[in-house]
Amino acid sequence: MLLSALATLLVPVLAADVVNPVGVNWRGGSVATTSTTTTTTSTTTGATSTSTTTEDQQDRSLYPDHPFFDYQESSNITALLGKTAVLNCRVKNIGNKTVSWIRHRDVHLLAVGGFTYTSDDRFTARHAAASQDWLLMIHYLQERDAGLYECQISTTPPKSHLIHLSVVEPETVIAGGPDVYINTGSRLTLTCSVLYSPEPPAFIFWYHDGKLVSYERTRGGVEVSTERGAETTSRLLVQDARPRHSGRYTCEPANSKPRSVNVHVIAGDQPAAIVHDNGGGTISLHPFLPCLLLLLLLPFQLLLLLPSPLPTSPPSTSTLVRI
To answer: How far apart are the two ends of the chain, measured CA to CA in Å?
Structure first.
């Protein structure tokens, strides 16, 4: 309790000593800045912000001992919803200056140096002694956390660099669902893709009627292969489908919600489905579609079987003339 009280008393003093000399005015948890900001382009998020480093390079040539940003190590990031995002701001030649973090949308001061300056305990400032990296960690990410964050150096005037945070939720998709119909002996291919994920999932599990599918390549006639990349894809292949392969198949990635599809393997030579294998995708038609077509054609077939009508007698050519 005593430490908490001392921290509460020292926060305004610390903020005044660190922030006010560099032209940042603290008012009720917000800051007003008068500095030129610099943004960079991120290959991860595909952001369209431009880099304006010319002035910074000129300043470095005139004042080589002044602090400056390492833009390559202070780039935009993409993080998963509900996880932890780590925003890094690398500053060289920091000297006796201080680095602060400011949330851009409401101009709220989040951190000064290694001190977290917000009541939201999801935010944590990190800085190791003699390190050039000033970290802002955001735990249990929410959608509203997405946006611009400003890293500011306490020079006169202050130098600022904007970093964009994107918050995404990966999506699991199974091609050909929710129901797939195939004939006995046909090849079954199920393709599961993980979209909008900043990094490949650590694993993707397949389940058949709630039981984990073995990852041994040819065990039980079932093969599973996974290709990791910007869009991770896992394929489940059955070369010779049998009725025992019918059931509910579930694809469950490590970082996304599971998706399921129902597979129906029809025994015999019934025209149960028309299946096209195109890059692992499966397109299926309902097994009763042929019967429906026959019913629609039945009236026309009955018309062809009916006998032709008899010809009518020709009209009389005599005409009654009244005198």
So the answer is: 136
